[in-house]
């Protein structure tokens, strides 16, 4: 909860500083560089909801399934995770910006939209489209992550031999597992115990 409060306060301060930097008239004209949707334009609120939901879910999926998952550190390394998340944010922003006149693109993060709107003092009746899809995507991602967690290896990638537990319907004892080996040439062999 403290994190959410600090993010919200920080985004409001940032939005106010941006308005101060470009001037109030320009901030009103450009919607302070934030999230904007003209409901009378070609993009409906429902369409914006779908784009925001899909963008937020994709970002959460990559972030917590690959980029920030500590069990994937050995596979991707420490530097690739943040790079993947940053690249996805850039791709989402580039692919959703300018889809239709009167639509600024996916906001992805509710604090960003809220802070910039507070900075300029402009609120609309359909602002929920920047908040509700993100929370719905987070809830759906939590359910998916709970029922289908990311794959984790029992052995590190650097190991040349890794015991595999059971696996067959007739095997009752986990001690009678198979062994997977990797030789110098990269050939994987499976030794099954009967």
From TrEMBL:
Organism: Thanatephorus cucumeris (strain AG1-IB / isolate 7/3/14) (Lettuce bottom rot fungus)
PANTHER family the record matches: AQUAPORIN AQPAE.A-LIKE (PTHR47002:SF2), AQUAPORIN-LIKE (PTHR47002)
Membrane-traversing stretches: 46-68, 75-94, 128-148
Subcellular location: Membrane
Any GO molecular function: channel activity
GO cellular component assignments: membrane
InterPro entries named among the record's database cross-references: Aquaporin-like (IPR023271), MIP (IPR000425)
Gene3D superfamilies on file: Glycerol uptake facilitator protein
Segments of this protein annotated with the region Disordered: 162-182
Membrane keyword on record: yes
The keyword Zinc belongs to this UniProt entry's keyword annotation: no
Protein name, UniProt field: Uncharacterized protein
Keyword field: Membrane, Transmembrane, Transmembrane helix
Organism lineage: Eukaryota, Fungi, Dikarya, Basidiomycota, Agaricomycotina
Membrane topology per record: Multi-pass membrane protein
């Amino acid at each position: 909860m403290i994190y959410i409060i600090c993010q919200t306060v920080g985004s409001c301060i940032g939005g106010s500083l941006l308005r101060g930097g470009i001037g109030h008239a320009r901030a009103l004209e450009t919607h302070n560089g934030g999230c904007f949707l003209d409901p009378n334009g070609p993009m409906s609120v429902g369409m914006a909801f779908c784009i925001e939901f899909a963008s937020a879910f994709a970002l959460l999926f990559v972030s917590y399934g690959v980029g920030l998952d500590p069990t994937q550190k050995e596979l991707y390394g420490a530097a690739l995770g943040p790079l993947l998340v940053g690249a996805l944010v850039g791709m989402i922003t580039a692919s959703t910006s300018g889809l239709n006149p009167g639509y600024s693109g996916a906001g992805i993060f509710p604090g960003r939209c809220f802070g910039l709107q507070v900075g300029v003092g402009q609120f609309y009746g359909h602002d929920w489209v920047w908040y509700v899809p993100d929370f719905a995507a987070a809830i759906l991602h939590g359910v998916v992550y709970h029922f289908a967690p990311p794959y984790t290896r029992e052995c590190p990638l650097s190991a040349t031999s890794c015991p595999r537990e059971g696996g067959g319907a007739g095997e009752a004892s986990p001690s009678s597992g198979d062994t997977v080996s990797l030789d110098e040439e990269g050939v994987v062999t499976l030794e099954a115990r009967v």
